[in-house]
Write a structure and sequence with these properties.
It is a single chain. By secondary structure, this protein is an all-beta fold. It has no helices and eleven strands. Helices cover 0% and strands 57% of the residues. Strands 2, 4, 5, 6, 9, 10 and 11 form a seven-stranded mixed β-sheet that branches. The chain is globular, with a radius of gyration of 14 Å. The relative contact order is 0.32.
């Protein structure tokens, strides 16, 4: 089993920055992708950014140039640096670990990000 615990959300103003953290614990996998997803009220959960084991990253078009995903393997922690935040970034942000071999997804409990105009 894997446990994912997010932190770092909050209420900020447009233009501000936040850094989300996702601490992972439990079993290790040889092949996986970790990512951040967001879900706004009334909308489906969608991918914000992902990073694979080799460090290759992928971003949603809406956050390119503003958000940066990174990982500290020594700390088993993934980060999402969110700059130039916009009201439309308001959502619950979830940490995800996708196991490539089985297709199974682990999820964190989510952290709320609210951006006021």
């Amino acid at each position: 089993q894997v446990q994912l615990v997010e932190s770092g959300g909050g209420l900020v103003q447009a233009g501000d920055s936040l850094r989300l953290s996702c601490a992972a614990s439990g079993r290790a996998f040889d092949s996986y992708i970790m990512g951040w997803y967001c879900q706004a009220p009334g909308k489906q959960r969608e991918l914000v950014a992902s990073i694979n084991r080799s460090g290759s990253t992928n971003y949603a078009d809406s956050v390119k140039g503003r958000f940066t995903i990174s990982r500290d393997n020594a700390k088993n922690t993934m980060y999402l640096q969110m700059n130039s935040l916009k009201p439309e970034d308001t959502a619950v942000y979830y940490c995800n670990l996708h196991v490539l071999q089985t297709g199974y997804d682990y999820w964190g409990q989510g952290t709320q990000v609210t951006v006021s105009s």
